[in-house]
Amino acid sequence: MAGGKVYSFEEVRKHSDRKDCWLIIAGKVYDVTPFMEEHPGGDEVLLACVGKDATADFEDIGHTDSAKELMPQYCIGEVDAATIPAKLTYDVVTKDASRSEKATTSGGTWATLLQLALPVLLLALAFALQNYTRAKAE
After folding, report:
1. For residue 34, what are the domain limits?
2. How many CB atoms lie within 10 A of CB 60?
3. pTM (2 d.p.)
4. pLDDT tens-digit readout, 22-75
5. Number of domains in the chain
């Protein structure tokens, strides 16, 4: 760790793009900018973890020991735990909100109906075919 500097949550949160990416994992701050292209899961995985405590995300993946051994070289300090908000709010940004709303109201209804009706129709067809072959055999 370089100098043991303590960063506020808001300071860490400012570093949230491909050219300047910091993560908080287990109370430590990591500048993973140089690792973005090398990350096996791609840079999108790292970018999805910015602006929050990424400890749970990191642990859920089940990183290898060799991955964990790389961490100290990217550690630049610690986060001040008192500055981490109790509950974070996120703004969901969509490319075309009106288009996605249309898809969920019209297309979404038909897709749900089809997902429910198709198995029932297949079962009815199988039952009818079974009864037809049984009646024909008698």
Report:
1. 6-83
2. 8
3. 0.60
4. 999 999 999 999 998 889 888 898 999 898 989 888 988 888 888 889 999 999
5. 1
